[in-house]
Amino acid sequence: MKFSDLNKEQKQIAFLAIGGVFTVFMILNNLVLGPMRENAAAAQNKTDELERKVNRGEAILRRERINQVAIQSAATEIGAIREQYLPPEISRYTWALRQISDIGFPLGIQAQVREHELPRFVPHTSPYRQIKHDTPMWVPYAVQVNFTAGYAKVIQFIDRLCNANPYVSIGMLTIQRNPNHPENHLVQMVVEWPVLRFNEDISLLRELAEGSTEGVN
Questions:
Q1: Which element (helix H / strand E) includes 61?
Q2: Which residue of 36, 57, 82, 216 is 20 to 30 Å from 19, comparing CA positions?
Q3: Signed CA dihedral, 203, 190, 117, 146: sign only
């Protein structure tokens, strides 16, 4: 049946029916479909945000793993340097005396070696935990070396000493005229090596070399 064949009353009922359907559609759109779309959009935003956080977290973890590997490698290298080139915690003077004697003896230099009287750094009396982050980890261990030698042998001694130990340094050097033997000068020097200020730092380096971070904080 065509719409034009309907009588007036039937047309009114048809209009009411169409209007009712439209009203129901608007109600569904506003009360059901609209919130569903908003919830879906909010859920998508949260999903995107979580994905960004996960990506950032993964990037941080990757960097952290890289940092841990780098720290472990550096701590291992420092430990090897300490074992090979730096004075040990025990018998530092004996170690330094051997280093100087091994260089001087082949050159005919009989050196007098003694520990330097004055500290070459500012000591601290505060507990380790209070100052470990604000205090240099390394301090110099110094010995004073006195001998007589000609200028050429002095140069040879310093050159061989530095070649034998790349971490040694000459903190002070004086060469004076020797009135009794003008060809052999009076030589005084302060020879020093870096050592760890605190014993706790030795344990820290060992922990880091093993991949542990318990002692870092």
A1: helix 34-85
A2: 36
A3: positive
The angle subtended at Cα 186 by Cα 185 and Cα 188, nearest 5°, is 130
Residue 28: DSSP 8-state: H
157 with 188: CB under 8 angstroms?
Answer: no
Q: What is the number of other CB atoms lying within 10 angstroms of the CB of residue 7?
A: 8
Measured between alpha carbons, how far is residue 157 from residues 59, 63, 137, 164, 193 in Å? 52, 46, 30, 11, 16
Contacts (Cβ under 8 Å, ≥6 apart) of 197: 121, 124, 135, 136, 137, 138, 139
Judge if pTM exceeds 0.85: no
For 18-39, b where at least 16 C-beta lie within 10 A, e where not — what string?
Answer: eeeeeeeeeeeeeeeeeeeeee
For 148-204, write each residue's pLDDT tens digit.
Answer: 999 999 999 999 999 999 999 998 999 999 888 888 999 999 999 988 877 777 777
